[in-house]
Amino acid sequence: MKLSFHGAARQVTGSCHLVEAAGRKILIDCGMFQGAHELHDENASGFGFDPAEIDLLLLTHAHLDHCGRIPLLVKRGFSGPIVATAATRDLGQLVMMDSAHLHEEDARRHRRKGRQGRRYEPLYDRLDALDAVRRFGRPAHYGTATQLFPGITATFFDAGHILGSASILLKITEGTRRRRVLFSGDIGPGGRVLLNDPAPPAGVDVVVMETTYGDRDHRSLAESVEELHAAIRATQARGGNIIIPTFALERAQELLWYLREGLDAGHIQPGLRLYLDSPMAISATRIFGRHPEAMGPGPARMIHAGKDPFQVPGLQFTQEAQDSMELNGIRSGALIMAGSGMCTGGRIRHHLRHTLAHPESSIIFVGFAAEGTLARIIIDGASRVKLFGDEIPVRAQVHTINGFSAHAGRSALSAWHAGLGNPEQTFLVHGEPKAMEAFGRELTGGSVRMPAMGEECEL
Hints:
Blueprint: E1 2-5, E2 17-21, E3 24-28, H1 40-44, E4 56-58, H2 64-67, H3 70-75, E5 82-83, H4 86-113, H5 126-133, E6 145-149, E7 152-158, E8 166-174, E9 177-183, E10 206-210, H6 221-238, E11 242-245, H7 251-265, E12 273-277, H8 279-288, H9 297-304, E13 315-317, H10 321-327, E14 334-338, H11 348-355, E15 362-365, H12 374-379, E16 384-387, E17 390-393, E18 397-400, H13 410-418, E19 425-429, H14 433-442, E20 447-449, E21 456-458
Parallel strand pairs: 3-4, 4-5, 9-10, 10-19, 11-14, 11-15, 12-13, 12-14, 15-18, 19-20
Antiparallel strand pairs: 1-2, 1-21, 2-3, 6-7, 7-8, 8-9, 16-17
Helix pairs in contact: 4-5, 4-8
């Protein structure tokens, strides 16, 4: 039995792990490397294995850094099935098609510039993404074991991270050797209204575990909601606009829930014009309504009763690009949620260009920002940033509210690991090195390793 690491190894993005056992090769996730634009070459490079030799892919959830290179995997020869929950299948289709569109647009932009000596082709296109979507088989159900091959079963457990997210347990028998190997995926913090708490299994021999926030805890959710409402009220009083860079999956829907509650309770002044300016987030919100089985009891009951948990008074969905551009003419009283959450692309960059210089306005960050991204640069206190070739002064009020994170903090990660039953081997992935090292020092019992890219380990 062998385990190798081909992404999220001593870094936060690009999750991709390969299990070789019982004569089979099983891939867990195949995600995009995200961050600065220089990562294009890293995403276009080889996988570290032959895609055509992979028998099956297990997908923990639909975030781009876990599924974003699946179309490229298919393009380069993978022809096996993909196993995921029903909600992950639907959200994954949305994410991969959107990613393909962005790659096509990026290639067209480079071609228009007419640079000689280089060919600019998309990493993959929408046809490749459709080919990937066709690989999804029958959906997995939480807590139900599925036999993948003789000697190998997989069981999905709710990870509480985003809709449909899972930790995946492989039970592997190879001759006289047996191993229970758990892949955490991304672990949610628990206590979230939209989702159930993470529910990992016990009696695990080996765990591959994320450590995004392994070195710190988040502010409490209640305090974060209060801070969000306060930042909105203060901006309303100044007469400015509020821009929230928003991840389309989970974060947008959670914000809609708390905006509705804030308006209903009077914590936000009436008259605010609300815009969800993200076609992907709009589609994701509709997908949520199809999957109450993957949601927390409160929203699930609302959906079963025919109510929309995300209907906010005054909310407008902005689908078309022209409608998005017109929002930049609003000078006061607007709250605009747009992607991408790390400000690496999408409509949010246009809204920042028109808002950053205005001291009466606010930029509210409510999610993780990887090193090198525009979001991280602004959060770290830059006085000026470059957008579309222009130097833009940062005069708007900048708020960073980390209690909305869909990732568990240090204490929740420790409790999650403790519930596994003292694994013999723990492999820490999906985190910046300092976070991994800090978290690794807290773990007791069994070996703890922080594998490098391409590293192979015997189980």
